[in-house]
Amino acid sequence: MILKKRKLVTIVIEASLAHRLEEDVIDCGAKGFTSSIAHGAGPRNQRVSDIEGGNVRIETVVSEEVLEKILEKLQKDYFPLYALSCWVSDVEVVRDERY
């Protein structure tokens, strides 16, 4: 079986911004994403239930090129204005054409 190296981008963002970010991720070149409700606490000790609407975790598997576009978009349009978290993991995928 042939595995291809890709990047898993995980972003946790306020639910009210999720749809906008999902569209931006696709516009950056991602072929898809998975969104799910996220619960937790961060450095401000504010739990998701303290914020109206809660948080959403958006994940997408992409190439290095698409990763760079997503990170640039976050840096320019999201990090200066909103509380969100983003991390990137190395992954290997089967069926590379899907990503």
Automatic annotation (TrEMBL):
Pfam families: P-II (PF00543). GO terms for biological process: regulation of nitrogen utilization. InterPro entries: N-reg_PII (IPR002187), N-reg_PII-like_a/b (IPR011322), N-reg_PII/ATP_PRibTrfase_C (IPR015867). Coiled coil: none annotated. GO terms for molecular function: enzyme regulator activity. This is Unannotated protein. It comes from freshwater metagenome.
